[in-house]
TrEMBL record:
GO terms for MF: metal ion binding; metalloendopeptidase activity
Location(s) in or outside the cell: Membrane
Organism: Mongoliibacter ruber
Residues that span the membrane, as ranges: 101-124, 360-382, 414-432
Name of the protein this chain belongs to: Zinc metalloprotease
Domain PDZ: 184-289
Amino acid sequence: MDTLIMVGQLLLGLSILVGLHELGHLLTAKMFGMRVEKFSIGFPPKIAGFKWGETEYSIGAIPLGGFVKISGMVDESMDTEQLSSEPQPWEFRAKPAWQRLIVMLGGVIVNVITGIIIFVVLVYQKGETYYSRDQVVEHGIVAYDIGKMIGFQDGDRILDINGEPYKTLGELSGGTALLSSGGYYTVQRGDETLQLEIPRGFINSFSDEESMSQFIDIRHPVKVYEVAPQSSAETAGLESGDRIIAVNDQKVTYIDELQKKLADMKGQEATFLVSRDNQEIEKTIAVSEDGTIGFLNQNLELVTQRYSVGESVVKGTERAFGVVIINARALGKMFTGEVSAKNVSGPIGMAKIYGSRWDWVKFWSITGLISMILAFMNLLPIPALDGGHVMFLLYEMISGQAPSDRFLENAQKVGMVLLLALMVFAIGNDILKIFTG
């Protein structure tokens, strides 16, 4: 069932984005009087379709993309029969270069608009919820395995990233920090202030969502939120709102400190000093074999910030283009070897990002992110992608001479081979991650 939910979300998200992308090409082509022969979401074989006017609309059996076939255009169909005759007024090749350029940019523009709209709506409806820098500085962090790799320690108070203040806990593990060149965190540790450098290629430690949880987290003071029924905590009379301030006469303030002490006392009884209504009470509580006593901790309250419509437009647009900037930076560092190509994911990896639980907020957040990434990837100057066509059209507009049809055909073939190789590589990465964990 989990797999079905992941696949279902991926197919729905891709169908929406591919459909809108191809619709951008279709509408701009028709706007300039070009004949659109086919519009397909998914690749052949066709499983359903209908014809309306001059255009055949269909759904393909391979849901990993889509296409629009415009008369007189060298595209992935490699149908060059029309090119042997004189250009007709309704053909792509008969139109001015600037019109053809707009048609090729139509899909990218729609994807960008879609991404912006999604992020703007999410910001307006949900606002932002986060742990703030002030909370991190007040309470410090818990350092997990990946955090310890660069020198973080429990209790560190992170003051800034690359000398600049941050706003949220999430920024500490964001692309802006991890992809920076010569990046560092400024940390207060006791009375000492020091800088922890972000090593070259450190971002490769974050291969999936699970690894992100092994970096750092904010420290939460110990405060009982709920006592588990029939637990040793309930037997000892622990109540909601109690604060455990010491175990066996050793002071504890934060839940990670308590967890470490309980891990050393599995299967034993311990004396707990509890603060309740400004009074201190001693309780003897048995620690289970798994190092727990049976209560849920009350974590720090998240900061919630709401935005007006105007603020949401600005914030959502910033967030949308932030995705593009981070991906462009990651791609650049991939060519230098600083970011591993193993981070490239295919459909399996994308499905895992959506997750096995259907959460509409998460669904639209990821779909908005993918929409911006698709726009960016489609603009890469690779033949067979929109960016390849844009590159040749710009050459034509600047030089006044269009590349020959034969050159465009061969470039299209090279582009298709490159895209196929990239797809195989991405799917191979996905499969490798399944077996290597």
